[in-house]
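User: I'm curious whether this sequence folds into something compact or stays loose and floppy. Could you predict its structure so I can see for myself?
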Amino acid sequence: MNAVPKLRFKDDDGSDFPDWEEVALSEIAERSTEKNKDLELTLVLTNSAVQGVVVQTEYFDKSIANEANISGYYKVRKSDFVYNPRISSLAPVGPISQNMKGDGIMSPLYTVFRVGEPYQRFLNVYFKSSVWFDYMRSIANQGARHDRMNITTSDFMALPIDLPCSREREKIALFLSSVDKKIDLLRQKKNALELYKKGLMQKIFSQEIRFKGDDGSDFPEWEEVALGDVLRERKEYSEKNKGYPHISLTVEGVVPKSERYDRDFLVKDDDTKKYKVTRQGDICYNPANLKFGVIDVNRWGDGIFSPIYVTFEAKGASLDYVGYLVRHSSFINKVRKFEQGTVYERQAVHPEHFVQAIINLPCLLEQQKIASFLSAIDSKIQKTSAQIEQMETFKKGLLQQMFI
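Assistant: Here's the prediction. I'll summarize afterward.
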């Protein structure tokens, strides 16, 4: 590739390091094809473009019918690199990850390769750079889908690497490690705030923690009511292109429709299809994905989404309070008792059953105090998330200058 970095390091005496040398990946890496024949490894790993190498989900484990299915899996040792031959043009990072989870096994669809310790830290950074990812995409074979490309293992191992000398590799790795440490500290802060909030919500909704009025007086006891007493289902529909933006409901909440979630091409007569209308301030949920926490307040604005979603407007209660209540795990576990369906993935909580759930409701003033208190914690979490995003953008900029 012969990349000339814009940002170079100098040696301790101020002298310039030598020019980077182009080598084939196979010169510093060795492919591993060690199979799990003796079945002594049970930790199943997967390679995600977003999360890297992670422990596989319970659902995947259930899909392994017997031990014979994993006898052909590759053994993956800690610090091995894993390459996913299918490159997504939509992926935010490259398809290569270093396994930091420990020894495990991985589908033979992936390519496992090992490099010596002197190269590991540098390559872990290098494989995340856009110059590497863009180069891979430029030589990949286009797949049947527009967002899927492939590079064969032999072509992959022959790819060129722009390699600095060992001293400059060390300086690059140390510098970026300090940036990663700051990002990790911010993530730890965010996780701590989220755990703090989770613990407080548990105590608040169990009434272990109570609030008082501005004059110090006690609020009335909470009342038992059906959820239908504070929520009313919105049954409003619209065709596409009638002035409403197309949006999605995901685990992140109500978000603009993106290419990732766009399946309109699968829908016949899309122009005449009736979509569900949701308005800002509605509470929305996916009946089949409630188990995964797909329920939230629509903070985005008026729009249309799939008619499989359910949307409610709040009545006679604080929207913010009800929003916190319905997203809490204790509430979700309660309404999941109404799930119907024989296939786990399709079990759903229908709206007529959803509103039958009994909740403990404080008076309006205490609802508002609870919501305001939790909102203040959310503001701290959002501020920390913004700091993480800023640091990651800063790191991305550094990577651009270091490898281009």
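Summary: Residues 166-205 form the longest helix (40 residues). The chain is about 35% helix and 20% strand.
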